Each structure stands twice: as C-alpha cells, then as structure tokens.
Amino acid sequence: MSASRYTYLGPEGTFTEAALRTLPEAATRVLVPMVSVPAALDAVRSGEAAAALVPIENSVEGGVTATLDELATGAPLMIYREVLLRIAFALLVRPGTKLSDIKTVTGHPVAQPQVRKWLAENLPDAQWESSASNADGARLVQEGRYDAAFAGEFAAATYGLEPLVKDIHDAKNAQTRFVLAGRPARPATRTGADRTSVVVWIRDDHPGALLEVLQEFAARGVNLLRIESRPTGEGMGRYCFSVDCEGHITDRRVGEALMGLKRVSQKVRFLGSYPRAGASEATPSRPGTSDAEFLAAAEWLARCADGGADQ
Q1: pLDDT in tens, 261-288
Q2: What is the pLDDT of residue 5?
Q3: How far apart are the first and last CA of the chain?
Q4: Which of 2, 3, 7 is nearest to 180 (CA)?
Q5: At a CB cut-off of 8 Å and minimum separation 6, what does 34 contact?
Q6: Residues 79, 248: contact at Cβ < 8 Å?
Q7: CA separation for the pair 222, 282 (Å, rounded)
Q8: Which residues, in sequence order, are CB contacts of 175 under 8 Å at separation 6+?
Q9: Count of CB atoms within 10 A of residue 302's CB?
C-alpha cells in the first residue's frame, strides 16, 4: 500500500480537493485526483492509496448517492475522519465573456439545486448540462464546450478562467460533508463527540421493519444524525438503510445498539466511528444511557443471577 498517497474526487480544483487540503496530514501526502468517487475508493481497496476523501452529504441536496452506494457495496472500507466545508460557487467563464453571452452552463449535479434560484433570476434561458465534477465543468468551459461553469472560485486560475460572479448560493451557509475512507482497521480514537456510520439490510419487507431498526437506537438513547434508504438492486421495494448516529462504537449504548441491529437485520456493515467535524464539546448522554449506568445495570443483573440481594 502507498501510505504517501491520498486520492480524491477530481480533477484539480474541486471542493473535495479544497476540503482535503484542510487536513494537516495532506501537506505530507501525494494528492491524486480521480475521475469519480468509485475510482477514488477503489484505489484504496487495491492498495494504490492509503485513503480517499469523497463527498457524502450536502446540507441542501442531502446524501451523495455515489458515495453512499460505493461504501455499502464492494470490498469493505472504513471512515476515519470527516470534513465540513462551506460551499459557495463562482460563475467561471473564459476571459471577456459577459453575462449576456452565456447560453450554456455546467456543474456537478449536486451543485444545481444550490444555484437554481440564482439561475432562474439571472440566466433564465441558459441550458444546464451536468459534469462529472464542478472542476471538470471548469475544464469543459476552458475547452469551449460550455460558456460557464459553477465551481469554486479557487478553480479559476487552474483552468485559465475568470470568476464573472462570486459567492453564489441559494441557501446561506450551505455545507458539504466529506469523509476520509481507508481500509478496515481499528476505529478512530473515541473523543466523546463522535459519529458512527453503518449500513443496515432488513431481513424482509414487512410492517414495522424500519421501526425495528429505529428501536434499537431509541431504546438505548442513541440519537440518529442521518438515515437514508438506498435501493439494493435486488428488485423493487428492496432497500438498505444508511445510518449515522451520535457516539462511538466503544460507547456501551452504541455498541449494544449495533449488537441489536445485528440480531434483527439480515446484514450490518460497520463503516466506522470517528470525530464529528465542528463538534467542540462531548455529546451529553440521556439519563440512563451513560457507560457507568450500563455497567451498573450489568453488575446488578450479575448479582441477581448469582442469588445476591436485589438493590
């Protein structure tokens, strides 16, 4: 395995690259752009790279399905870090282009919902075409394929373009969450302000199937941060669930919830426990769900089983 290489969703100039460069270790790694999320993650699976940074969730558009599906299938990978990046777009054009000249625009599909209102107000007749990434859209503008691209302002210099309009966003303070995935090993060290990610497949489609999954968390006071259904490809109505919850696998409440999921589900894939980006304080536990209270309950049960006094 090449421990010095990190891959990311490229080409150069993507928001993913900008997010990756916020990690301190990025300064000592060779950063390799890849053409797609699967390509970035497959490089880790094959040992060509130690880790890959890919987008997983946007505060406007929701989950990035390519990442969710790729982490749920294929050889297992684990998440060790996450990065939050504020997203604002610039309208990148070839030098000399005016707003009235723009007939075609491009960008990543996840970008479109974040600039839809701006487009309707400022370029109502422009035709949108999706590109593999925002930076790839900038490259296509450089080549003359499109008139303008929505991308990070920082991509302009890389592709010889100019930011005609800056700081474009329909939703103020929009963010994208990125995850650093590597091959399976011990999870990141518990911090007290952590996130645990899993994928759950139900045994069969029946009334209350999703409720059974949710109850494993609720009964132990584990707060869910995200849950999304994704088709398994096995036929209509067959879904798995991508779930993020507060806490670390070594927290007793989280560990017991995962064991409960394993008992009631067809399959559970553990994707990692890792520090929550932007969380500066430990997540408080609800009454009755701390490690000390779980331990005290286990000791009480052991005393009862040994014939000791109930107290």
Answers
A1: 999 999 999 999 999 998 777 777 788 8
A2: 95
A3: 55
A4: 7
A5: 7, 8, 9, 10, 40, 43, 52
A6: no
A7: 14
A8: 58, 59, 84, 85, 86, 87
A9: 10
d(CA 63, CA 240): 14
Single-letter amino acid code for the residue at 148:
A
**8 Å CB contact between 152 and 159:** no
In angstroms, the CA 121 to CA 21 distance is 34
Token pair 């990543």 is found at 108
| Distances 212 to 260, 270, 288 between C-alpha atoms, Å | 10, 18, 21
Residue matched to tokens 């005609």: 164
Average pLDDT of the residues of the chain: 92
**How many angstroms separate the Cα of 112 from the Cα of each of 9, 56, 125?**
18, 16, 15
Distance CA 90, CA 275 (A): 31
> Taking the CA of residue 105 as centre, how many other CA atoms within 13 Å lie in the half-sphere pointing to its CB?
30
Exposure string for 125-147, b = 16+ CB within 10 A, e = fewer:
ebebeebbbbbbbbbbbbeeebb
Half-sphere exposure of 47 (CA within 13 A, CB side): 1
Strands (E), 87-161: 89-93, 104-107, 127-130, 148-151
Model confidence over 237-254: pLDDT tens digits?
788 999 999 999 999 999
**Are 13 and 151 a contacting pair, CB within 8 Å?**
yes
pTM: 0.86
pLDDT higher than threshold 80 for residue 2: no
Residue 295 CA to residue 256 CA, distance in Å, equals 12
Q: What is the CA radius of gyration of the chain?
A: 23
Q: Is the pLDDT of residue 52 over 70?
A: yes
d(C-alpha 66, C-alpha 69), whole Å = 5
Q: What is the DSSP letter of 285?
A: P
